[in-house]
Design brief:
It is built from six helices and two strands. By secondary structure, it is mostly helical. The chain has one domain. A two-stranded antiparallel sheet has the order 1-2.
């Protein structure tokens, strides 16, 4: 039998004695598992372009150089793909899910950019273990931010149109900026100075 429990925030959470877990707990577990799965996929995507013999279709999803943008790309594709699993696992209102995942994706991108340029600027170099651990941290943060937005006691469904437009822009950028990257530092390989699919300066 299902029943509702009102939490201290005033939100009503559905609980079921069939699974023994409240929806927020299930969401939290899904978020943590999602971060782990997305991180594993991101690691594979980091090497997939080289493994494929540098096939162009693979370049759409995998990193082609060591630029910050290419690392954001291999984090966001799994993050967005996991949204499908979350929908079938949690069965949320799809409009609320889209708003939450859009905010989460922006959080992943912004934190990746800010942290990389701040820490590498301070140290004057990059550290592999810092890059790897921070990538998992930002994926987990993105999942938790999405979870927080999903459970807001506000009519966030009203932001569905804005979220859809922003998410569309994110996907277009992911699809286009490897082949045609803007000539700014975010898209430059810090080791070679090359952009996107360039092989020579």
């Amino acid at each position: 039998m299902d029943y509702s429990v009102t939490g201290s925030s005033g939100l009503q959470y559905r609980q079921s004695n069939r699974c023994g877990l409240s929806v927020p707990v299930r969401q939290l577990i899904t978020a943590v598992v999602g971060a782990i799965v997305c991180f594993g996929l991101a690691v594979l995507l980091h090497y997939a372009y080289d493994w494929s013999g540098e096939r162009l279709p693979v370049a759409v999803f995998a990193s082609v150089n060591e630029s910050v943008w290419e690392h954001i790309k291999i984090l966001l594709w799994p993050f967005l793909l996991w949204s499908i699993a979350e929908y079938y696992i949690l069965r949320p209102d799809p409009r609320r899910l889209l708003v939450g995942k859009t905010v989460g994706a922006l959080a992943v991108a912004v934190m990746t950019i800010c942290f990389f340029f701040v820490y590498s600027g301070i140290l004057g170099r990059t550290v592999v273990w810092v890059d790897i651990s921070s990538a998992f941290l930002w994926l987990l943060l993105g999942e938790l931010v999405s979870l927080r937005v999903l459970n807001l006691p506000h009519n966030i469904e009203a932001l569905y149109g804005v979220a859809a437009a922003v998410m569309t822009l994110i996907v277009v950028m992911l699809l286009c900026f490897t082949a045609s990257p803007p000539r700014i530092g975010l898209f430059a390989d810090p080791e070679t100075g090359l952009y996107g699919l360039e092989t020579t300066p």
